Description:
Layout: E1 4-8, H1 16-23, E2 27-30, E3 44-49, E4 52-57, H2 78-90, H3 96-109, H4 115-130, E5 136-139, H5 149-159, E6 164-167, H6 177-182, E7 186-189, H7 211-218
Parallel strand pairs: 1-2, 1-6, 2-5, 6-7
Antiparallel strand pairs: 3-4
Helix pairs in contact: 2-3
Amino acid sequence: MKTVVSIVQSNYLPWKGYFDIIAASDVFVFMDNVQYTNRDWRNRNKIKTSNGMQWLTVPCGSNVSRLICEVEISDKQWQKKHFNSIYHAYSKAPYFGRYVEFLKTVYFEKSWRNLSDLNQYLTKTIAREFLSIETKLTDSGRFSNNLGSSQRLLEIVKANGGQVYLSGPAAKDYLDVSMFQRAGVEVQWMDYSNYPLYPQLHGEFQHQVTILDLLFHCGSNAREFLRHTK
């Protein structure tokens, strides 16, 4: 079997597709030593409420002259606000009670100063403890930023023993696939379409929500609504 490596910037409470690409990989690399982008998934995600879709945004300021791993969180009030928003939206979901202690730990017992630390903690905990994903999770911090984007990705894949690079489809616009082919690394594209529906509160079904939505509605069966079981 070929070793599959995927490389993605960390997101705040990512959607189910993010965890699916983790599950589809042997090694998943958080790539947080790259440019931070505003109004993106780095510091925010969506929940579904009785009043429609709602953003949960971690306050990080508007400065884009920094890497994701350098982003500081200065306002502490957001933690209580996010917990309350999640509670009001999902407290009646069938499996909410199974995860409420985890939420209390995240939002009341820990103090977060760095966005990358927050994102990686949430993703690792959810992947390991709630979705039973055994993929190796690592970080790109030891790799140089001086290389071009495709070269840097290739170096990370090779350093992690990858024979296959599994990429999100957005990278089709810039990835130099021929560079990977010359290095003997196969490029595959993740397919995020046609996920199965599950019983979901608050009206018409929405896919583009945090993974918490799936966990609260499906509990230990949540993995069945991802495609990959590695």
